[in-house]
Amino acid sequence: MTDQASVFAYCEGVAPLRPRLEDWIKALLSDPERLHGLVEAHGAPLNIQCDTPFRRKITALNDCVAEYDLPFLPMFARKANKCLTYVNTAHEMGIGIDTASHVEVEQCLAQGMPGERIVCTAAVKDRALMVLCVTNGVTIILDNLDEVALLERVAQEIKTPVSVGLRMNGFSCEGQALYSRFGFPLREISSVAARLAQSTHIRLDGLHFHLNGYSAEDRIAAISQSLPVIAQVKPTDQRDFFLDIGGGIPMNYLDDPKQWVGWLGELDAALSGDRAPITQHNDPLGRKLGRDGTIDSYPVAQSLVQTDWMRTVLSARQDGKAIADQLRAAQVTLRCEPGRSLLDGCGITVARIAFCKTDSVGTPVVGVQMNRTQSRSGFAEFAIDPLMVPGPEPRGDAIEAYLAGTYCTESEWLTRRKMTFPQGARPGDLMVFPNTAGYLMHFLESRSHQFPLAKNVFVTPDPNALARVDAIDNT
After folding, report:
1. Rounded to the nearest 5 degrees, what angle is found at the Cα of 149, between the Cα atoms of 144 and 150?
2. Distance of alpha carbon 349 from alpha carbon 456, whole angstroms
3. What is the per-residue pLDDT for 194?
4. Domains of the chain
5. Distance CA 373, CA 356 (A)
6. pLDDT digits (tens, 9 = 90+) for 192-216
7. CB within 8 A of 124, min separation 6: which ones?
8. Other CB atoms closer than 10 Å to residue 428's CB: what's the count?
9. Burial class (CB in 10 A: 0-12, 13-18, 19+), 200
10. Is the dihedral of CA 264, 266, 267, 271 positive or negative?
11. What angle do CA 277, 278, 279 make, to 5 degrees?
12. PANTHER family, per this entry (predicted)?
């Protein structure tokens, strides 16, 4: 066994961003024999996951909203992670699923999730997807008039009642318009609702929005601006009408959030020439001097997160009344679509080091058997430190190096941040990217070069229990 402090000692950012780790991850990192055994058995890169934190986060979110005596249905954002284990756990715990494609809907139905607990928010919905949703009772979130027309035709042909919500845009916060390419302007919702009311088979069951970013203030403003629209379109006797506020519930990745401020300071110093670079070719990663916190990375050190964020939204007062009280008075069921925040602490991605070399200017490069799409979302950088679990080869001299991946391009870096390896890096060592279950391991994964996708195995907090391959790898 290796003690926990020594696990952090093998690799760290030159300007550290130490990850916050769940107990099951700490236990696995402290048992190198078990971790190497999982990689030997299932290949690398490998996504190792545990749904215990997922269960805990669902319970915490439900308990939080229950404090406000408000009807509530969280809808897990399936696009954040493809594993069927989370679908089954969501079903077991009585929450819903937010789906974004035909296959996601099919898979959820195949796992036994009832259609009334599935919502389809796909950005593009074709006829086949509409038919699938209508025939299985899945709620469809309509985004534009072309979708409305298509659904009208499908519903008329199938002659089956279909539940829909209308996606809204046109919100503002503190005088600033909140841009979105999705949805209908608020001023048009009443006319679209009136059109749907002419259909024999289409039933408007709610309204929906999804805002970019993670601002509680933006959500408070959007809910407040949605309430008058709800009053216009909701039948007075309809008690299960929903307002879905989408996702964007923030979380914190760092063990010490103050390290983020320190890291930004070191990056600014490097960009100003006051210290040696801490990124590949002194890459600013989207950072502009004088713009606090701006970097092309998920914000890893947020202070208002998860249930505290939700309480801030529901407790906010607009026109002298709390948001939660206004929703309750309007007889509205609150829905949201958390992905990353429910998956917080649920997964790591592990890959082998294949080589250590220098590039054409003498900078050390550590080659890792994975590509950057296997631990990346829509942002350019993975801004928490990976960890290293040593292999059998003897340790060496300390180096500062960059992590390169398997794609044959000069831009193939797993992170553009410089890492320090106090005891060197050797073939067979394992690089561990923590907290990747939410978007990072699946959202952009690619089979370019015909590399196989990483397998997904689930473990439990019990170190003696066998790992289980997720059913998604058998589909």
Report:
1. 100
2. 9
3. 97
4. 4-50+345-474 (2.40.37.10), 52-251+303-336 (3.20.20.10)
5. 21
6. 999 999 999 999 999 999 999 999 9
7. none
8. 13
9. exposed
10. positive
11. 95
12. DIAMINOPIMELATE DECARBOXYLASE, GROUP IV DECARBOXYLASE
From 186, 182, 184, 190, select the one nearest 234 (Cα to Cα): 190
CA 8 to chain centre: 25
Its pTM surpasses 0.70: yes
DSSP 15: S
Q: How far apart, in Å, are the Cα atoms of 65 and each of 95, 235, 335?
A: 13, 24, 10
What would the two tokens of residue 267 be? Answer: 């990056």
What CA–CA distance (Å, rounded) separates 298 from 433? 15
In whole angstroms, what is the distance from residue 334 CA to residue 314 CA? 10
Q: Burial of 466 by CB count in 10 Å (0-12 exposed, 13-18 middle, 19+ buried)?
A: exposed
What SS3 state is found at 336? strand
Q: What is the DSSP letter of 414?
A: E
Task: Kindly tell me the burial class for residue 34, based on how many C-beta atoms sit within 10 Å of its own C-beta (0-12, 13-18, 19 or more).
Answer: middle
Over residues 289-348, the pLDDT tens digits come to: 655 667 888 889 998 999 999 999 999 998 899 999 999 999 999 999 999 999 999 999
Query: What gap in Å lies between CA 435 and CA 21, rounded to an integer?
Result: 8
Give the angle subtended at the CA of 55 by the CAs of 53 and 61, to the nearest 5°: 100
Q: How many H-runs (helices) and E-runs (strands) does the chain carry?
A: 13, 23
